[in-house]
Design a protein that fits this description.
Helix content is 40%, strand content 25%. By secondary structure, the protein is α+β, with helices and mostly antiparallel strands.
Length: 112
Amino acid sequence: MRGFSTRVEYTRKIGMAIQAQREEKEQRPDQAVESTRDAAERFAWLPCRLSLEVPVSEFTLGDLLRLRRDSVVTTGLRSTEDIPLRVNSRLIAWIQFEMIGDRLAARITELA
């Protein structure tokens, strides 16, 4: 029976320690933000895949097989509609396309 009571006491102490950590984080939210910023800076060199998804409705296999140079694929989107921006397949923002000089650019309109 002594082993059981020791485990219960140990579990209670762990619970108290976790609660104390939570309360400490709640009292110092700026440190949580700072640690996130530190982690971001530490891993800033990692490569990631950025992709823009332009949905094309009613596109068929036949349409795909007929694609040639100079083919134009129309989307169901208006020129002012937002397009999903993903990093490593995870949605992070919504964008709109813009022209900057002769370059196509993406302006972030909303963070996910």
